[in-house]
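Reopening this one. Same input as before:
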Amino acid sequence: MNRRQLLAAALAPLALRIAPGAISSNASAATSERDGKMSKTTQRIIECNGIRINIAEQGEGPLVLLVHGFPESWFSWRHQIDALAAAGFRVVAPDLRGYGKSDAPQAIDQYTILHLVGDMVGILDALGAATAVIAGHDWGASIAWQAALMRPDRFRAVAALSVPFRPRGKVVPTSLMPRTETAQFYQLYFMEPEPAEAELGRDPRATIRNMLFGASGDGVAAARAAVAAGGPAPNLGMVPKGGGFLQGPGAPRILPSWISESDIDFYGEEFKRTGFRGALNYYRNIDRNWEITGAVAGMQVSIPALYIAGDRDFLLSFPGTDQLLANQKNFVPGLRKIQMLPGCGHWTQQERPNEVSTALVEFIRDLPSR
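Same output, byte for byte:
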């Protein structure tokens, strides 16, 4: 890999013990509406990999595991849960450790990629499932890729949204992250204890509302229009020293059609209750993840794979990502398709629910039966 590819690997989110059984309890039920029909997604707590994980589930059939990103929850997959269940699959979407109703260990080193992949394997064991198709978005995509790389015996196919597979680089990722006298890359800001928690947690609902709009296709279009009208160009991914991550005018009064105020309410209440520490701890393990994954350096993802992203996703603008995508099949020989969604930003499955659901159903149905 050249330096540009190494930089791209650092800039995007990076991304085995097996629990013998599950302890289940009835929890709340979430009801969602799709195509005029009400379908019920239930939630319950299971024990796996030494912690308690909240899962949302629906349907019967071959297992599909949906893994969310930052700063989200199982709820980010609400549309796909319905669609995949209707297509004949058993769908499970967990709150990752540190999120939602799942446990949030205090120690930062309890959020490494080995813990996260271990949680995914533990979920399969708790459910009594030998294998599953795993799909992930953002951090969830990094987890899904690593699960596919490390445990192809348990995960028979992988679908990744937004974040492509990135081979392990030759140096610690933070050494390549940009920093100047006046600003630093946002992931470096997230690694500092306290400031990011305080900023994001000051008004969780407003944080989520502004982040979801700002990184969406609609938000990117609005930012480009502002620059075209003579406004300042944003310094992508950089946080001013002494300043904060949340910048710009924020979300408009009327949200785009893909996200509702009630959706924002759900996320806002979750983070009001949990705070952002658990979610931010993922970033605080980026270098540690590099240190502990030397054994898989140079390995390829051998199982069938699908990659989907929006053409307005800010991650695609990071240096070297275009070459990484062009060479993705060298690292993922089983890659079936790269699907780009016009006008879509970072929140792939929420902004384009029908396209993503259709792509997932078609991809899984075409897999060899096991």
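So the earlier flakiness isn't reproducible anymore. For the record, The chain has a mean pLDDT of 90.
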